[in-house]
């Protein structure tokens, strides 16, 4: 008997397997984020080539998600997930087997394809085993594996790359992928059989944005833009401002992401998206303001508290909202919308802010990010006032979710 139906609990066997499997999928990703550039430099790639290798990953992940609708109709969610994991595994092994720019670029494109599929369908499977009345809380817990790996895997990857031949790093990243596949294989998830999904004509725009998800998609895009500024340019800003120990910002921030994820999902399930989204945007705005005005390591570290609390509220709330506004058969596409809009905002933020930083400096660009946060707040308030910030599970007048 399915444990979800039996006890209606979040922490059932299937959910644990999927959550840990997703965490290991992100261990594979985060171990390689800082080390791929180091590896490319070690095999003689130029600065321009390293930039291409770094940027092509997100682009290929976005491209492959345009085909999720066709793939899920033919293969089903679980087979699509395994296709993504297998592609990621082949690509990870390929990094060490083909130590040339062309080989690394090809492997990076394949890894983007695999990661795009894996993340999309891991989330789509997770929502199937979360009780509907606890979806916000469950999605928050589901992302904890990513949060933990984000705080630890990059450091492990750099340490391994610095102490051993690169093949050891790629072997460890491959092992994480293999264990992830095993855990997903053990999970039992009900889904519509492949080939039974009703075929619909879908526009190119709706391959990128699932129909009816424009408002949460814009909020996801804006979050990706501002989050990219912090993750990419905060160390350079700290160096420009002569602030030491900037790396502690992310260690502290990850801890508070962890804490706010646990609380935010429960609030979402009781009161709907605005109750989590608006405090999250305000907290993140305070963090950006403190980054702009940072003058010491302690002050910057205090900013990381607001960064972690804001990010931990926003990310699972956006994903839950997207899942709730689509029909169950369209959840894979809602997951693709979440990752596509987030990745597009991330890519645009990195390119635009990096270009701007070349003219005005890294401290100054965060004042531009603060202006974007003002737009973010205004859009969130508009969505709420206009009745856009609801989902089909939001309870009336604070009453319990049926």
UniProtKB/TrEMBL annotation:
Q: Does Endoplasmic reticulum appear among the keywords?
A: no
InterPro entries in UniProt: MFS (IPR011701), MFS_dom (IPR020846), MFS_Exporter (IPR052714), MFS_trans_sf (IPR036259), Sugar_transporter_CS (IPR005829)
**What are the UniProt keywords, alphabetically?**
Membrane, Transmembrane, Transmembrane helix, Transport
- Membrane topology per record: Multi-pass membrane protein
Where's it found, cell-wise? Cell membrane
Q: Which residues cross the membrane?
A: 15-38, 50-68, 80-97, 109-127, 139-162, 168-187, 208-230, 242-264, 276-299, 305-326, 338-358, 364-384
Q: Name one Pfam family in it.
A: MFS_1
Q: Where is the Major facilitator superfamily (MFS) profile domain?
A: 14-386
SUPFAM superfamilies referenced in this protein's UniProt entry, alphabetically: MFS general substrate transporter (SSF103473)
Recorded protein name is MFS transporter
């Amino acid at each position: 008997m399915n444990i979800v139906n039996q006890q209606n609990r979040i922490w059932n066997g299937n959910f644990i397997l999927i959550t840990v499997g997703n965490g290991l999928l992100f261990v594979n990703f985060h171990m390689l984020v800082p080390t791929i550039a180091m590896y490319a430099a070690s095999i003689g790639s130029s600065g321009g080539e390293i930039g291409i290798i770094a940027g092509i990953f997100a682009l290929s992940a976005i491209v492959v998600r345009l085909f999720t609708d066709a793939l899920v109709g033919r293969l089903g969610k679980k087979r699509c997930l395994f296709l993504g994991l297998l592609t990621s595994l082949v690509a990870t092994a390929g990094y060490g087997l083909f130590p040339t720019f062309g080989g690394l670029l090809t492997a990076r494109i394949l890894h983007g394809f695999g990661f795009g599929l894996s993340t999309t369908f891991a989330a789509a499977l997770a929502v199937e085993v979360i009780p509907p009345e606890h979806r916000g809380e469950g999605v928050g817990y589901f992302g904890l594996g990513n949060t933990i790996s984000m705080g630890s895997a990059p450091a492990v990857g750099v340490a391994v790359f610095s102490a051993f031949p690169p093949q050891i790093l790629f072997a460890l990243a491959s092992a994480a992928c293999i264990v992830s596949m095993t855990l997903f294989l053990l999970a039992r998830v009900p889904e519509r059989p492949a080939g039974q999904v009703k075929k619909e004509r879908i526009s190119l725009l709706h391959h990128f944005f699932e129909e009816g998800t424009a408002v949460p998609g814009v909020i996801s895009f804006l979050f990706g833009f501002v989050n990219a500024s912090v993750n990419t340019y905060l160390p350079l800003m700290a160096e420009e401002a002569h602030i030491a120990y900037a790396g502690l910002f992310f260690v502290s921030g990850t801890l508070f992401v962890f804490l706010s994820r646990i609380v935010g999902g429960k609030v979402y399930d009781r009161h709907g998206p605005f109750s989590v989204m608006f405090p999250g945007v305000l907290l993140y705005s305070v963090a950006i303001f403190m980054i702009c005005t940072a003058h010491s390591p302690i002050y910057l570290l205090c900013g990381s508290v607001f960064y972690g609390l804001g990010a931990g509220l926003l990310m699972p709330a956006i994903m839950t909202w997207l899942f709730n506004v689509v029909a169950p058969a369209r959840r894979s596409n809602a997951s693709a919308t979440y990752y596509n809009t987030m990745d597009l905002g991330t890519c645009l933020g990195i390119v635009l802010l990096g270009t701007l930083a070349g003219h005005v400096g890294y401290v100054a660009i965060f004042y531009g990010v603060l202006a974007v946060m003002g737009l973010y707040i205004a859009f969130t308030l508009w969505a709420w006032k206009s009745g856009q910030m609801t989902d089909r599970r939001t309870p009336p007048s604070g009453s319990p979710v049926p």
